[in-house]
User: Fold these one by one.
Assistant:
Number 1:
Amino acid sequence: MPKPKKRGSNHQRGAGGQPRNVQPFSDEDASIETMSHCSGFSDPASFTEDGPEVDEEATQEDLEYKLKGFIDLTLDKSAKTRQAALESLKSAFSSKILYEFIMERRMTLTDSIERCIKKGKSDEQCAAAGLACLLCVQMGSGIESEEIFKTLGPVLKKIVCDGTASIQARQACATCLGICCFIVIDDITELYSTMECLENIFMKAYQRDRDANGVSSTHNTVLHVSALLAWTLLLTICPMNEVKKKIEMHLHKLPSLLSCDDLNMRIAAGETLALLFELARETDADFFYEDMDLLTEKLRALATDGNKHRAKVDKRKQRSVFRDVLRAVEERDFPTEMVKFGPERMYIDCWVKKQTYETFKEILGSGMQYHLQSNDFLRNVFELGPPVMLDAATLKTMKISRFERHLYNSAAFKARTKARSKCRDKRADVGEFF
């Protein structure tokens, strides 16, 4: 019987039987290795899948081991590997509270993010900016976060103002600049400086094309939208005297953006207008806007827009948003929304709260509910108090098992099938004519 070949006996040894110097992580191998690890973080639900009970301490150690590997890979030579590592860290940070782990490595993470933003290309810069947001969300407001912002703030501003950088990178950095400043800033002069940087970007959208009516649509519109939304977020934490100055500066100019060809710009301008009116009426109960008739006419036209050249989905979204904006401007009314997370409920009852919630939801994605339950910073922002502590028995009774979910989904599927079958039968009978 032939002897089995020894593993690595040929291709891993050079002349004379000496071990060959093999590169342990080539660019391609590193990318594959990273992507295989990343699959575990592609879905935040993967952290909380139902199944047999496991040792939480061992699971945490395994998670931290993987995260250490991702942090190391942010320094890899391959851009693809670095980007995959950044995305994996983003998924983990949005799905778990990792304060202690991050605290020990915050400077390393900050250096990696700074290097990726400075030297990376568009996709890598976007991923790094997104990770910077999540890093500050994890750390919350404090001295450590201020140190992170002192390092990354100038880099973000430089990219935002750099006309040679890609629009996507500038857009991501504008959003990151606004969120990080909102979280960590304690120096009022730095707050005003950041707002001025963002103002200089979106105010360019006010400029009208001399040869056309309305706002000229350019490839910079996505950047203007992100800068406007980030600026609006920071306006919500400004002192009232500064709020009054900003309202006087922008309230008469913002309505011009309602004529923009881009749906997202129209919606961003409309929601910003509603927020400005809300803040203006808080500072002055007798606030009066001179061009109210013209503004309400524009808002009503957008709330009932039926232009055939626009997609149905866009028209539906626009009408829904501008109905609320019109009610806010005309009637000082806001449609209260309820957000459920675990056993708790949060009511969004004003435009300031809505703007803040939507901003963090965009960053955290499906991890928003988890952070609302467990993240001290977010709970302070939304005035939810300390996290609600539930024992394991209570959590187990509240949790629906996978088998129960399967039964529920099967029953719902059968009910839908029966209902649709009846509708199809009715449609079949309509074909008879006299």
Note: The first strand starts at residue 337 and ends at 341.
Number 2:
Amino acid sequence: NSLIMAQWREMTFLLNIMDDQTISSLYPAATFPIEFRHYLASWIEEQRWEDFSLENVEQEVPAQTLLNQSIHLLQTVAQGNVNNVVERMKLMQLSKNLLNSQRPLEFAVMVKDVLRKEKIIISEKHKLETMQQKVNSDEEDIKKLTKKVALIMEYRKKMHQLEEEFNWEKQNYECMQAIYQQNPSDMKDREMKAVMNKIKTHEFERHRLSMECKHLLRDSVEHLKKSQDNFLSALNAWRWEQHKSIIGYPFSDDLNPLQSWSEQLLVVNSSLRQELMLVHEPLSDIEEGLKALLKVLIESSFVVELQPPQVIKTQSKFSATVRYLLGETLIPGKPVTVKAQIINELQARSMGAALG
């Protein structure tokens, strides 16, 4: 049937990124072959399979009707494949298998269950797409934050420049005072007033920039915390998706976007701490806030990229991979060495008790 319904269209895309074992478990060859799902896609999705359950034996008759229809449709599709003998014979054999091996009610419930599993898989795919969109959105957020840091740097440089000009004008004022005390002049009041006005202007502008700089620093730390919270949520979502992939859910194991995000957060944190130090202002609340964010980021960026098997047999070999997202960014020029040790259940309990 060329009129493939929306659900199967999405599934055919996902099947390309799913492993063979997962596909075989979703469409068992003996009871629900994938060819049956493919060729009868539109018809399958038009029926009301959700009404069936093994407990309702009175549904045996409508289930039998659907089974008969599916066998007839498969035979019709087979007969239509006149130019492909192999495909035609395979579909005819599938229709015979359905006729001989399926109990109507069990067949209907099985179809319902497969469609339900497909919907869950498609839903998880949409969640992954949403998460990726969120990562992209937060990358834009980081760019805005970087611009704020650049503005803080600009204000801080202007403040230092104004401070130098303020000190020079102050020295100039004091020199003029000394000169005019020895040599009184009619120009004294006007010139002294002009210099004093410059001093007041520089002092006012410096104070304004200082207040603006403090405001931007606090705003940037708050902005950084929100972005880091979003990063931690995305990282936890990645870990949860990885966990669910064990039972066949679609999963993108690409950690590069999250690594880039974590590295940018670290760079922004470092830049803000540097600016805070160069501003020469006692802003302990901002300093403590940045330290707390840095501590959480460092501790959270350790990831088990490739999980070991859920069931490990004695004397068997297996592989696992750990990854530190901050990598070389944490200590430039000195790649961080990450070591991991697998412990048994008893050791895990002991550690849990000690931490508790």
Note: The two ends are 61 Å apart (CA to CA).
Number 3:
Amino acid sequence: FSKPFFVEESTHSLSLCVQNSQKISKSPRFHLQMSTAKPSSSWMAQFKPGERVEVSCNDRGFRGSWYAGTVVRREAKNTNHYLVEYDQLYADESGEKLLQETVDWVQLRPPPPPPEKKVQFKVEDEVEAFYSDGWWEGAIIAEHSGGKFAVFLRGFDEEIVLEEKDLRLPVQWVRGNWEPRLEQVQREKENSNFSKEVMKFTQGMQVEVLIDEDGLKGAWFAATIIEPSGEDKYLIEYKTLRNDDDTEFLREVIAACNIRPCPPEIIVVDGFKVWDAVDAYYNEGWWVGVIAKVLINSNYEVSFIEYDEKTTFNLADLRPHQEWLNGKWVVP
């Protein structure tokens, strides 16, 4: 958790950041870049006077933090700016007058919905933690007695101990919809009953196979189902990997939990942006990565977090990342 990831400077300034600047480290470790796409009219209509929202502060040392508030009004009919009043941030030192501030629409989102079932937090979980009047990105690094957890907060660059009630799973508000973060999808996949309710594959079906070996961890390779081979196992033939003699395509018996259908095609119209989760075609397989930099001529620098490496790819060799979760495709 101590290694820094991509950091992009921001020129936005919020008075709440100025007020709390003495409390927080000036070297944030991680943040999510928010979409700058123009919102649809239906999305804009959701932010009405009196509506509950969360407001992001994207200044240095505050990235990834969210503060609860209420929309007071939209500043003008044809603008994307709103006046909000914070729940726990004050305009005066006496703490009698709540802070009101005009913010851009990209800094607003509704309060995240509660989880459908109780979350069992564990070490290495990505979380949002309520601390210093806001929700901050972090990761659980230790579990303590009494339902408490040690959490590393990236914005503060320090470890604190919090109760379970002060933690929640991170989600993203994308174009008017709540979408799970990539690490949450992977967490749900690990905790699901997928291994007990594996999909049945038929002969000749085109699939992708996960090879969970050193140097190939997390990569998916195109294959064809040849025939069943024991309980919840299949003999498959790879479409790109060949045998040691290079005389024919490699065949292997693979557990059904490491096989999935080929993901549906998603047409990318406007290209990718920084922080998009993608699959990159590399060494005959699809590898999960994150867009680190947008280059010229439809080229992108992709970071493979699993291997701490970056490589340049053309748009033609990238696809939006999708997860096969409990029998359906999920786009984190």
Note: Helices lie at 15-19, 41-44, 182-191.
Number 4:
Amino acid sequence: MADSPNCDLKSLSPLQLFERVTEQGEKVRALKAGKAPKDEIDAAVRMLLSLKLSYKTTTGQDYQAGLPPKDLVLINNGTTKEEDEDLVDPWNVQTSNAKGVDYDKLIVRFGSSKIDTDLINRIERAIGQKPHHFLRRGIFFSHRDMDQVLDAYENKKPFYLYTGRGPSSQAMHVGHLIPFLFTKWLQEVFDVPLVIQLTDDEKYLWKDMTIEKAHEYARENAKDIIACGFDINKTFIFSDLDYLGTSAGFYKNIVKVQKHVTFNQVKGIFGFTDSDCIGKISFPAIQAAPSFSSSFPQIFNGKENIQCLIPCAIDQDPYFRMTRDVAPRIGQPKPALLHSVFFPALQGAQTKMSASDPNSSIFLTDTPKQIKTKINKHAFSGGRDTIEEHRKYGGNCDVDVSFMYLTFFLEDDDRLEQLKQAYTSGELLTGELKKVLIETMQPLVAAHQERRKQVTDEIVKQFMTPRKLAFEF
């Protein structure tokens, strides 16, 4: 967005204003550092002050770097009842809407950009092949600076991928596969390094488990991640409890981030209270550090200017909004992001799944019989109360969990559209749609289990050993 005083600032949301002030502040710092002409710096400063005044007028509060406003626009279905508002943060996802979270409103609230047809077409041109169905179907729906990543790729400049997993249980469910399946595709089509963070330290701080158990879960989850098919020569998986103590570069970046985020800011971003342990308060800097290539000197040869692209669910965005605010102040490029929707619980799209509820999803350890039972018994239906009503009025794919799961895992676009038309018209019954899902998920999970059996402790050790990857920097 151009830094023009003629821009109608009144039309911007609080979060859009916040982003404008942040960007303008970075511009002022860059002009000063580059010893730009005085009149140019003065004009940029005047624009910054104007933006800060508009921000205060709109929100009633002074701008604070790294502390986005609590958005004044509710994420709901046109009501202002607090109980109808969508709740989205790194630990909770709740909505009263059976269709799930309103992602268009979430984009406005978080200040990200929609992945539109133009961006998808540009990705297709860059990689020379059809984009992943997660992109085509809007499963990855929002981004920050993906256009910059494509600029770099088209100009033969390197970038790398970073994603992660909080190992809260020994068994992962199929929803946990979404970022890894997509990241694997990104790694293959762009041919770039990948780092995967296992935040076993986070789970110890947040969950009622021993530090040994958290570390054990990280190793077990690593086997499921490796079973997705990542290239060992291009992928580094690390446990925070292991890696933090061995990498000076990683720890230095953590300390830099910590210095530039105040306690007040981290409380505002993450909702921490005075009763939270100091480990929670300091943890966001640990999740931020892999966004900077200097955290992995063995991979990037100490280079600090390599941009990072982070595929993740949008509930993780607060961590990286903070990171993007800090990055220019510590001389690092801002990480880019690709956001996915939430994978719904079997019981409905009002919440995401819980690893502690075995009936909330299909787990990667489930047998074919367990998969069939869970889908038939627990998958929320968009069908009618009787066969006669269903034949007459049809089913609702927008709330039907079986159809939602097929949107994620049935790769055939034509087949998916046929099912949608048949279910919506009433030709296909709920039981028949569930049967299609069962027949899709049983071989998918079985194949994953077979690949996981081949992942030995030695292979895990190789993936998790800090080392040079198959790239020159």
Note: The CA atoms of residues 193 and 234 lie 5 Å apart.
